Structure formats: structure tokens, C-alpha cells
């Protein structure tokens, strides 16, 4: 009898948005692994549904009350969870002590590098409240100038944090490696920019780097309650997409899933603009905010509808391939308003099957212009607390 082949390696999406591949040989499970999973499970239940009693946590998680008591005790001792008083009596039985994530004392530092004119950062509590916000103008020059500006912003934010900081999340344009290197970002001229290393030397908190569109997609899922399959399009200095399938980021074998900005959507030499990458007709050359503003300044009244149509041309095959039902657009509302959305929707309807048309929901990102900033904070919660 021929033995069955071993199971194929499966991709693992890391907390910082990177992807690794599990080894072919099955790894032995260790008690520490189960402990870590249970810890993340408890923190996730509390973050989304808390405060809850230990008994309720045990019931929802399927863990024993003894295990739950030990876990909650450890989380309280670590300062991540606090007791909030006895729950109201309902029915029989002794009321339990309510516990919750310490939302007011715990903070994340979030930085958004995708905006057209500045780097923006904030210190945000787990209540979602901003304690402080700073920005610095986009620096002139190469990645060394960018590094100095990003480090300055991160240090200012860290110094101003009013409580414990879980970590620093940075959402950046470009393809980001698992080690936090921006491998390439054509629209800002970066190649091999080791952002992780630069920030790790500058601030005394864990640092996590992610692509801007991926971060925004994680934020929409984690913070805004989007639970289905999702494609989030980030429009700023460039154009990119974050794709979630069953709540997990689609990263791709070279960390480049969602890099739709350099997909060609116009090939007529007479009307295809030149992109920052050197080619003609790339989506970014039609839809990025600098491109739209230039055409508006030149008196092109149809530029906003044109941008919506070009984006629809690029997205229709993705929707057809993945049967996605939710399209979220993150970008300036003054440019990406009703005319843009109307043209995008009509283009998608023209280019997809009728069965798909009925399920496509196109909407603006929940956090508007702060979608990427909030997403940068969300990647810290995923990386440091295991919350998904």
C-alpha cells in the first residue's frame, strides 16, 4: 500500500502582515503554544465583547474555569486586564467579577506614511481615543531624509504618550518584507529602506511595519467590525489594495498581493499618462491623488469620473476571481465623493456577472482619512496581543 504524501506546507500570516511558510515536517505542539493561543483568545473576546466574567469567558472560549482563572490572573498581573466590579445579578448563582482589557491605560503609537503632503502619527488608547497627534511635512530627498523625519515623529509621539505603550505600528507605501524592509515603493522613490531597523534603534517599544493598504484593511476588520471578505483600496500618493479572505490578509508569495497601482488600465498612447515607475497607463497615473489634482488644476472636469472608471476596470477581475462582496475605499472625501463612487459602481456592474453585482457593497472607509492611521494601530494589537 502506497503511503499518503505529507500535507503541503501552509502559509502563515504573521502579525506584521508578512507571510512565512510552515515547514513540511509537522512541528510538535508545545504547552507554550497552547498558552499563547488561549491568551490571544481571551484578549480577543474581551476586546470585542468585554467586560465579561471569568465564567462567561470560559463558556465562550470552551476552556475550563480553572484554566480561565489562571489565564485571567496572569493577564491582570501583566497589566493588560483589569477587574471592573461585580456583574449585576441575573437569575440564580453568584454574580461574577467582570474583567476587561485596560482600555484607558493601554496605548498604541500609529504612523501613516501614505498621505500626499505629510507623515501623520498619533497615540491612541484602546478606547479608540487619541491622546496626541503630530505630523511632519514630507521630506525632500532620499530615504535617509525620510528616515530622519519618521524617527523624529516616532520619538515625539513616544515621549508624549500618557500611559503604557504596547508598540509602534507604521503603515507605509510599498512592498514590505517580513523583516520590516520597504523593498520597493516606486511612487516615493524608496528601495531597500530598512524602516524596522531604524525605528527599533530609536524607540523603546516593539515596532511593526506593514503596507498601508494592508494595515487599513486590518483596521477595517478589527476596529470597524467588518467580518466578511473584503477588498480595501487605499488612494493617496499611490494606489494599493489590502485583501482579506475569511478574515486573513492575502499577502502573496512575494509580499505583493494587492499591488494594483502598477496594473495597466490605459494603453492608448494618446491618453495614457506616464507613471512614476516609468511605464504608461498604470492605475496610479490615473487615480492617485497627485494625478487627480494635477488634472483638476489643468481644468479637466471629468477627472474624478475617469478615476472611478479606471479603478473599476482594475477591480472587476479581482472581484470575479475571488467573489468579493465588500469594496472599501480609503482616500480624501473631497476628491473621492459621489461622482467617483457612482462611476466606480457602474463600471463594476458592467464588468461583472449579475450574480456578483447583487452582493458588491462599495463604501467609504469607516475611519475616512484616518483609515491607514487606525490600521497602523490595529497591526500592533494583532502583533502584541494576538487580537484578530
Question: Brief overview, please?
Answer:
The protein has helices spanning 31-49, 54-61, 65-77, 143-160, 195-202, 212-222, 283-287, 289-297, 303-322, 338-351, 354-357, 371-385; strands spanning 11-13, 19-21, 52-53, 81-86, 97-101, 106-112, 118-125, 130-137, 164-172, 175-176, 181-185, 190-194, 207-211, 230-235, 239-245, 248-249, 326-330, 361-364. The protein is an alpha+beta fold. The strands form five sheets. A five-stranded mixed β-sheet has the order 8-7-6-9-13, with helices on both faces.
Q: Can you give a write-up of this model?
A:
This protein has 388 residues and is α+β, with helices and mostly antiparallel strands. It has 12 helices and 18 strands. The chain has helices spanning 31-49, 54-61, 65-77, 143-160, 195-202, 212-222, 283-287, 289-297, 303-322, 338-351, 354-357, 371-385, and strands at residues 11-13, 19-21, 52-53, 81-86, 97-101, 106-112, 118-125, 130-137, 164-172, 175-176, 181-185, 190-194, 207-211, 230-235, 239-245, 248-249, 326-330, 361-364. The strands form 5 sheets. The chain has a 5-stranded mixed sheet with strand order 8-7-6-9-13, sandwiched between helices. The protein has a 5-stranded mixed sheet with strand order 16-15-14-17-18, with helices on both faces. It has a 3-stranded antiparallel sheet with strand order 3-5-4. The longest helix has 20 residues, at 303-322. It starts with 10 loop residues before the first strand and ends with a helix. 42% of the residues are buried. Residues 1-25 have low confidence and may be disordered. It comes from Labedella endophytica. This is ROK family transcriptional regulator. Belongs to the ROK (NagC/XylR) family.
Amino acid at each position: 500500500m502506497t503511503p499518503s504524501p505529507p500535507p503541503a506546507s501552509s502559509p502563515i500570516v504573521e502579525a506584521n502582515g508578512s507571510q512565512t511558510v510552515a515547514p513540511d515536517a509537522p512541528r510538535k505542539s508545545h504547552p507554550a503554544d497552547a498558552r499563547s493561543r488561549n491568551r490571544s483568545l481571551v484578549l480577543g473576546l474581551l476586546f470585542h465583547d468585554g467586560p465579561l466574567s471569568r465564567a462567561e469567558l470560559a463558556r465562550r472560549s470552551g476552556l475550563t474555569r480553572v484554566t480561565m482563572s489562571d489565564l485571567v490572573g496572569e493577564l491582570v498581573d501583566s497589566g493588560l486586564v483589569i477587574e471592573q466590579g461585580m456583574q449585576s445579578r441575573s437569575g440564580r448563582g453568584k454574580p461574577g467579577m467582570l474583567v476587561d482589557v485596560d482600555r484607558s491605560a493601554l496605548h498604541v503609537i500609529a504612523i501613516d506614511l501614505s498621505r500626499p503632503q505629510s507623515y501623520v502619527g498619533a497615540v491612541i488608547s484602546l478606547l479608540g481615543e487619541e491622546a496626541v497627534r503630530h505630523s511632519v511635512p514630507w521630506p525632500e530627498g532620499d530615504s535617509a531624509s525620510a528616515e530622519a523625519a519618521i524617527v523624529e515623529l516616532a520619538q515625539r509621539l513616544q515621549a508624549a504618550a500618557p500611559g503604557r505603550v504596547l508598540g509602534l505600528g507604521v503603515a507605509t507605501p510599498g512592498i514590505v518584507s517580513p523583516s520590516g524592509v520597504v523593498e520597493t515603493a516606486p511612487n516615493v522613490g524608496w528601495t531597500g529602506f530598512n524602516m524596522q531597523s531604524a525605528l527599533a534603534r530609536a524607540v523603546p517599544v516593539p515596532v511593526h511595519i506593514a503596507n498601508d493598504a494592508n494595515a487599513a484593511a486590518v483596521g477595517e476588520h478589527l476596529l470597524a467590525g467588518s467580518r466578511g471578505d473584503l477588498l480595501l483600496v487605499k488612494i493617496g500618493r499611490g494606489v494599493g489594495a489590502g485583501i482579506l479572505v475569511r478574515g486573513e490578509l492575502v499577502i502573496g508569495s512575494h509580499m505583493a498581493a494587492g499591488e494594483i497601482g502598477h496594473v495597466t488600465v490605459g494603453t492608448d498612447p494618446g491618453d495614457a499618462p506616464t507613471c512614476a515607475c516609468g511605464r504608461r497607463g498604470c492605475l496610479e497615473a490615473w487615480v492617485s491623488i497627485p494625478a487627480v489634482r494635477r488634472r483638476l488644476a489643468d481644468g479637466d472636469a471629468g477627472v474624478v469620473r475617469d478615476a472611478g472608471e479606471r479603478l473599476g476596470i482594475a477591480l472587476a477581475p479581482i472581484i470575479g476571481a475571488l467573489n468579493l462582496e465588500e469594496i472599501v475605499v480609503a482616500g480624501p472625501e473631497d476628491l473621492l465623493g459621489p461622482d467617483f463612487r457612482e462611476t466606480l459602481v457602474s463600471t463594476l456592474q458592467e464588468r461583472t456577472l449579475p450574480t456578483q453585482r447583487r452582493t458588491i457593497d462599495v463604501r467609504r472607509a469607516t475611519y475616512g482619512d484616518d483609515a491607514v492611521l487606525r490600521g497602523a494601530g490595529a497591526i500592533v494589537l494583532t502583533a502584541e496581543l494576538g487580537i484578530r
